[in-house]
């Protein structure tokens, strides 16, 4: 039982570290662009594309300030949690953007007047 509790607390610590170091700006921007620019199917593929765009942007972000790029180490549980959170967030944003786009398309269509 002691090992199970130790594993639980290690996972809690890893989750906290992952959420503290998470940069959501690139995935939000990429998901909004992809969600508003494309049609309304295969949301999970679009979320993968948004995360695939967001990870290099977040890695090269320190380059703007003259530092070296920071690539995520996918052997660490924190990086895996971050990618999972980014995927879920991208999926939700793309789904919401697609719904907004569909609602806006229905709102702008004209209905013929009844005679």
Protein described:
By secondary structure, the chain is an all-alpha fold. The protein has one domain. The chain has helices at residues 2-20, 25-37, 43-60, 77-108. α2 packs parallel to α4. The chain starts with a helix and ends in a 7-residue tail after the last helix.
Any descriptors?
mainly alpha; 115 residues; 4 helices; elongated
Order of helices and strands: HHHH
Query: How many β strands by DSSP?
Result: 0
Strand composition percent: under 5%
Characterize the overall form: elongated
Number of domains: 1
From the alpha carbons, calculate the radius of gyration and give it in angstroms: 19 Å
Question: What are the segments in which pLDDT stays under 50 over at least 5 consecutive residues?
Answer: none
Average pLDDT score: 89
Helix amount, in percent?
over 70%
Largest β sheet strand count, sense and barrel closure: none
H/I helix tally: 4
Query: Which structural class should the secondary elements be placed in?
Result: mainly alpha
